[in-house]
Amino acid sequence: MADPARPDATATEAGAAMADDDTAAVRTAELEERVAFLEDQWRRALADLDNVRKRTTRELVQARTDERTQVAAQWLHVLDNLDRALEHAGDLERPGGGQHPLLEGVRAVRDQAVALLASLGFPRQEPEMGERFDPRRHEAVATTPRNDVPEGAVVGVVLPGYGEDERQLRPAAVVVATAADDGTAGGMSRPKDAG
Amino acid sequence: MADPARPDATATEAGAAMADDDTAAVRTAELEERVAFLEDQWRRALADLDNVRKRTTRELVQARTDERTQVAAQWLHVLDNLDRALEHAGDLERPGGGQHPLLEGVRAVRDQAVALLASLGFPRQEPEMGERFDPRRHEAVATTPRNDVPEGAVVGVVLPGYGEDERQLRPAAVVVATAADDGTAGGMSRPKDAG
Questions:
Q1: Which of A25, A112, B2, B42 can pair with A42 through a Cys bridge, CB separation 3.0 to 4.6 Å?
Q2: How far is B145 from chain A (nearest CA, A)?
């Protein structure tokens, strides 16, 4: 121990060094805290970057799918009208089995349009007569009392559907059988809940 | 300075404190370097994040535009074939000015398809006779020697174009006038550079 009555230079230096040591300890603690904070922030920023990149990849796929679906839905109206126009062409069938060139050409274009919608992910769906009504693929546009088929069977197709599984462009518009009260098949009627 | 011949406890402590001080200085310098490094990395990660977010917004718009264009280009083939089918329908015009229902229906569908392409950003372009050939909007599919119009004038349209300004779905396929060597208008010929 240094004699307190005779402090010498060495003791003074030691005291100063110890005071510096305290300051240095505080400074070190501050720096360590800052390092921990920055490491955490950097890690978070990198994680955010990774998430944004992953999300972007998903969003780009989704944006393309949405756009393709929207555009396909608009062309579906064109295809429906082509189908409708063809319904008025019966007299262009020629007796020998041939067709008028316009009828032949338009049928080919209609088939091309159906194939294109299928290639875009929306194959044409024609429900089979008698299959059970499925709200995921069918829309009931009318009902008709029938006693020859089970209630809920599809008994008519007004418009074909387009799509498959989870990706439906449009459900098929169908007529659905209801129970015939008196055993006689009646006329077609709109469903009660139709808008 | 402590007397080297009589080292006392205080001098020893002071020496230890000074050694600690050196260690602390090294540690502080290391920490300061680490802080500077982390601040830089954090700043870069945040800048990257900002850039990725901005780029994503642009990429999403571009993905939608690309997809719309690709799908529209596929439907353009359907429209071309509809136009082609209509070329074979002359005899379905009725003497009184009426049309066969199929012809009427298909023309309406063709007009609907043209309007749809326009709404997707690709209006139909029918070059005017005599307008100057413009490689951004026209594709020369044939040339013909003519002395009644300037060289390079459009003198026939084989297929209409679709698009506007920078966004061309397809240039119009046109016949272009070349200088008539002998002053007589000759037949149509393929351009020399056509593939």
A1: B42
A2: 35
User: What is the tens place of the pLDDT at every residue in A24-63?
Assistant: 788 889 999 999 999 999 999 999 999 999 999 999 999 9
Closest Cα in chain A, distance from residue B135 (Å): 29
Buried b (16+ CB within 10 A) or exposed e, A169-187: bbbbbbbbbbebeeeeeee
Alpha-carbon dihedral B21, B27, B31, B32, rounded to 10 degrees? 50
Given its phi and psi angles, is residue A23 left (phi above 0), alpha (psi -120 to 50 degrees) or beta?
Answer: alpha
pLDDT of residue B14: 63
What's the pLDDT score for residue A98?
Answer: 77
Evaluate whether ipTM surpasses 0.85. no
B111 shares contact with chain A (CB less than 8 Å): no
Q: Are A110 and A83 in contact (CB under 8 A)?
A: yes
pTM reported for the whole predicted model: 0.76
Buried/exposed code over A116-141 (b: 16+ C-beta within 10 A; e: otherwise): bbeebbbbbbebeeeeebeeebbbbb
Radius of gyration of chain B (CA): 39
The answer to whether the Cβ–Cβ distance between A2 and B10 falls below 8 Å is: yes
- A residues 33-62 near B, CB within 8 Å? 34-35, 38-39, 41-42, 45-46, 48-49, 52-53, 56, 59-60
B67-123 pLDDT, tens per residue? 999 999 999 999 999 999 998 787 777 767 778 888 989 999 999 999 999 999 999
- Please choose, from the candidates A118, A134, A144, A142, the residue with its C-alpha nearest in 3D space to the C-alpha of residue A171: A134
Whether B169 and chain A come into contact, CB under 8 Å, resolves to: no
Q: Does B158 touch chain A (CB under 8 A)?
A: no
pLDDT digits (tens, 9 = 90+) for A95-140: 677 788 889 899 999 999 999 999 999 999 999 999 999 999 999 9
Minimum-distance CB partner of A88 among B34, B78, B102: B102
